[in-house]
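User: Please predict the structure of the protein below. I'd like the answer in structure-token form so I can feed it into my own downstream comparison script.

Assistant: Understood. Taking the following sequence of 265 residues as input:
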Amino acid sequence: MSNSEVQQYLYDLQGYLVIEDALNADAVAELNRLVNEQELPDGDRVTRFGGAAGSIPDGPGFLEWGQPFCGLLDHPVIMPVLRFVLGDCFRLDRLYGIKMREGMPRGLLHADYGATAPHSGAQPGERYHARENEIAAGFAVVSWNLTDTDPEHGGFCCIPGSHKSSFKLPNAIEEAPENSPYVIIPSAPAGSVTVFTEALTHGTAAWKARHERRTLLFKYCVSHTAWSSNRVRWPANITMTPRQEILLREPADPYRYFPSLFDEE
């Protein structure tokens, strides 16, 4: 069985996938150095930084901080995973970073699609289903860890398999996820990348580590979909590759108006 088959199986089973050593130590150090140069302000709760699109106006976000951030957009480690999750035609919808200091409290468990989605009229299982050995999902998040996260430190947490649930998250788990054995914090060392479906019930656990949590999130969707009318824009001072140009296109019907990202392969 190939590594891709294992990844596909685990992603479908769990709703998320952790790939360790996606970035080497030098690459992680350079990204952290560039983040340090921004002299980002500290807050009392989880702090988002470098965002673009979604609820944030058009712009490049942290992409304008340097080529190393732009290189993550279509990194060779994540593209095969996104292909079996989203197909051959998908785009970058939005991005932002997360940082946390020791003692910061947890966030809320949530899911953007499926039975636990907050918007009215959500149907059980919406946006995620598996059929005939093919994963069909509208959105996927790629989360790059620039510092270590694990059960002792905190960070990304989730309920594995919840993306397939036909029932809403019970209040008993939602109100005290830290006491629930069903909510886990995957180990994801610095340099690892976590890919998960937004139908997965997930959140942010309280941060207990002395070092700062730093995570970069890229949110992708199938080519004909968009979260909002705002768009990620490419920084003017960095050269874009043909594949990156496709990833930043406007939403469009796959193949007819939106090309495959894998034609060269």
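That's the full token string. The CA atoms of residues 31 and 83 lie 25 Å apart.
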